[in-house]
Amino acid sequence: MVPGLDPAWVAETVARALDEDLGAAPGRDVTTQATVPPSGTGTAHLVARAVGVVAGLVVVEEVTRQVAERLDLPAAHVRFVAADGDDVGPGRVLAELTGPVQVLLVAERTLLNLASRASGVATATRAWARELDGTGALVLDTRKTTPGLRALEKYAVRAGGGTNKRMGLYDVAMVKDNHVVAAGSVSAAIGAIRSTFPDVLVQVEADTTDQALEALTAGADFLLLDNMPTPVLAATVAAVRAREGRDGVPAKVEIEATGNLTLDRAREVAGTGVDYLSVGALTHSAPILDLALDLQPADPADRAPAHR
């Protein structure tokens, strides 16, 4: 079971997305509302058009619910035949939506935008998770997310088999080169964080083995080894592991590799003994998964009378 999204966040995000498409609430769809009678009902299938991993189905009911409310029409019934995290292929029906055709057509683009984006992230993540299977290393996401959609994209990473790193600047401290410059040293930066925010874990970015060992001495909980060639990365991991449990260093230091990571290097990097590979491309470069909402042909007996 994929840990879920906050329903309040989903509702707020869907409302903003609908405002973009329809204008300020209740808004309008000038094409659909002119050509489809409010009384018309029908069924639409949410369908995958490509191979991938589905995610974001959690938003479908909220989109259709809010559209129905804006149009003052009955809500559509949504029957899911796939779940977030499922592998899918072209033609796979993911959900069946039944209700007012106006609701289905007005909801179409917003639910597709969100579900296609999430499914693209889940698909990219699954490729990394499969490549790392059995290595002991996990793939992590980053903060390189679409503004306003971080919660959805990090949810999609989980659906794809990846692991979330920090959600933002508020939950884990990350000491980078600019922080070291501003504070004067790694030790000063870590000391300031410990004094000001004693409840957070502190991670330090290192480009060399010496920097990694300096960060350990200064009290880092977690190391981010950035852009290291594989031999240097392996030597740094070995040096850190040799210090674990000694001289105040934790018994287990978590180590993350980042920078210049590609799928064809994934197992090689994992073989150095790192715990994580963090991959910004999971969110910043994942293409969408092509999904469609296909309205099913109506039975002629059920069609509303034509406008006169």
Please give a structural write-up.
It is an enzyme of class 2 (transferase). Involved in the catabolism of quinolinic acid (QA). Keywords: Glycosyltransferase, Pyridine nucleotide biosynthesis, Transferase. It holds the Pfam family QRPTase_C. It catalyses: nicotinate beta-D-ribonucleotide + CO2 + diphosphate = quinolinate + 5-phospho-alpha-D-ribose 1-diphosphate + 2 H(+). The chain has 308 residues and is an alpha/beta fold. Helix 1 (7-22) crosses helix 3 (60-71), helix 1 packs across helix 4 (101-132) and helix 4 (101-132) packs across helix 5 (150-159). Strand 10, helix 10 (266-270) and strand 11 (276-278) form a beta-alpha-beta unit. The protein is elongated, with a radius of gyration of 24 Å. It has a 6-stranded parallel β-sheet. It has a 4-stranded antiparallel β-sheet with strand order 3-5-1-12, covered by helices on one side. A two-stranded antiparallel ribbon has the order 2-4. The termini are far apart. The protein has 2 domains: 7-119 and 288-302, Quinolinate phosphoribosyl transferase, N-terminal domain (Aldehyde Oxidoreductase, domain 3); 129-284, Alpha-Beta Barrel (TIM Barrel), CATH 3.20.20. It is 41% helix and 18% strand. The model has no long low-confidence stretch (mean pLDDT 94). The chain contains 11 helices and 12 strands. It has helices at residues 7-22, 30-35, 60-71, 101-132, 150-159, 177-183, 186-196, 209-218, 230-243, 266-270, 281-284; strands at 41-48, 52-53, 77-80, 87-88, 93-100, 138-140, 172-175, 201-206, 222-226, 254-258, 276-278, 291-295.
